Structure formats: C-alpha cells, structure tokens
C-alpha cells in the first residue's frame, strides 16, 4: 500500500508487515517497566497486646536507596533515629533506561524513514549501511545494559529484602520480616532488555540484505553469460 503525499514522501505501509519494521517496537516495553517504578519493603515489631508496629521503607527509580530515610515505630509509639536503605544502583538503572529511550527515538526515526521515504532510503547504499552499523551498536548496548541492570536488580532485591533489614542494629532482635517488595515489573524489564538484544541483533540480518555487501548467490543469467533467451 503506497500513497504519495508530496515530493520526496511516499507512504508505504509494507515495512510494517516485514521484520525490518516490526521488530523494533518492543523497545518501549524495556524502559517503560523500569522508569517510574515505586515500591516498598515491609517489616514489623511485635508488641504486647497483639498490636504490631509496621514500618514500610520506600524506594524507586533510579534506585538511590539512601535517598529515602525511614524511622522505625517502637511499641511505645516513639520513633527511632532515621535509618537508610543501603546501596546506590542508579548507574545501571539509568544506563538501561537511557539505552531504551535512545533506542526508541531511533526506532521512531527509522520507521518514519521506512514508511515515508523508502525510495530515499534505498536510493544509495549509504542509508542501509549506516542503519546496519547503528543497529549493531544498539544490539551490543542492549547486551551490556541488560547485563548491568540484571546485576543491579539482584543487588536491589538483596538491599530491600526484609530478612536483611531486620538485621540492622536499630532493628535486630525486635523486628520481624514482612512482605517482600513486588518487583514483577523490574523482572520483566530485564527480560525485555535481553529480548531487545536478540531482536536488534536479528534485525541486522534484514538490514544487511539491503546493503551492497549482500550478494545474490544466484544472479539471473544474461545473454552475455550464455543464458538462454526466453521464448
């Protein structure tokens, strides 16, 4: 389906049905499941009379955990001194989101190019070659940032584990672990990260076929090469 709107622009929805155009739309799912995350961990102090005092330290993206101090409510209703979650895991989280955002912007630009300027894209070999190099670079970046964020997420889980928090000096011997933080979104973000790495690496093959480096192994025979003329 092709609709010519003005000089240089010709709307062609064909690439949306091909891997070249559809593979990259998964980029948004990776950083969307990480950025904006907000969660809390839970533990309590068991007090006489069955009235427990609950404490719910909060944390979220970009996972600078000491940025959110909390106080433990004691059985006499008083509060302890400020206590901090330990660990700064912002570098891996922000790197992951940064790759996702720039990948999404590049996807948007190339989809516009594929759908509206396919004739310009294929007019010279420069466009496909640049696209191939950038796509390969993003595949590598997805591998690096997903691995780094996977390790960072493991550390976040350890630092916010209620079983670890109740071992701190202000809580030891008086606290009881509660519910573990819900991190389904963050687990999904790591999966999407590695999925994007696979998809972008696979996309290199489809772009490679658009470059002059890809030669047809069975070129059509010509009269000069001894091919028989068609009747």
TrEMBL record:
<keyword id="KW-0472">Membrane</keyword>
<dbReference type="InterPro" id="IPR008253">
    <property type="entry name" value="Marvel"/>
</dbReference>
<feature type="transmembrane region" description="Helical">
    <location>
        <begin position="21"/>
        <end position="39"/>
    </location>
</feature>
<dbReference type="GO" id="GO:0030672">
    <property type="term" value="C:synaptic vesicle membrane"/>
</dbReference>
<feature type="transmembrane region" description="Helical">
    <location>
        <begin position="129"/>
        <end position="149"/>
    </location>
</feature>
<keyword id="KW-0812">Transmembrane</keyword>
<feature type="transmembrane region" description="Helical">
    <location>
        <begin position="188"/>
        <end position="208"/>
    </location>
</feature>
<comment type="similarity">
    <text>Belongs to the synaptophysin/synaptobrevin family.</text>
</comment>
<feature type="domain" description="MARVEL">
    <location>
        <begin position="11"/>
        <end position="212"/>
    </location>
</feature>
<protein>
    <submittedName>
        <fullName>Synaptophysin-like 2a</fullName>
    </submittedName>
</protein>
<feature type="transmembrane region" description="Helical">
    <location>
        <begin position="93"/>
        <end position="117"/>
    </location>
</feature>
<dbReference type="Pfam" id="PF01284">
    <property type="entry name" value="MARVEL"/>
</dbReference>
<keyword id="KW-0325">Glycoprotein</keyword>
<keyword id="KW-1133">Transmembrane helix</keyword>
<dbReference type="InterPro" id="IPR001285">
    <property type="entry name" value="Synaptophysin/porin"/>
</dbReference>
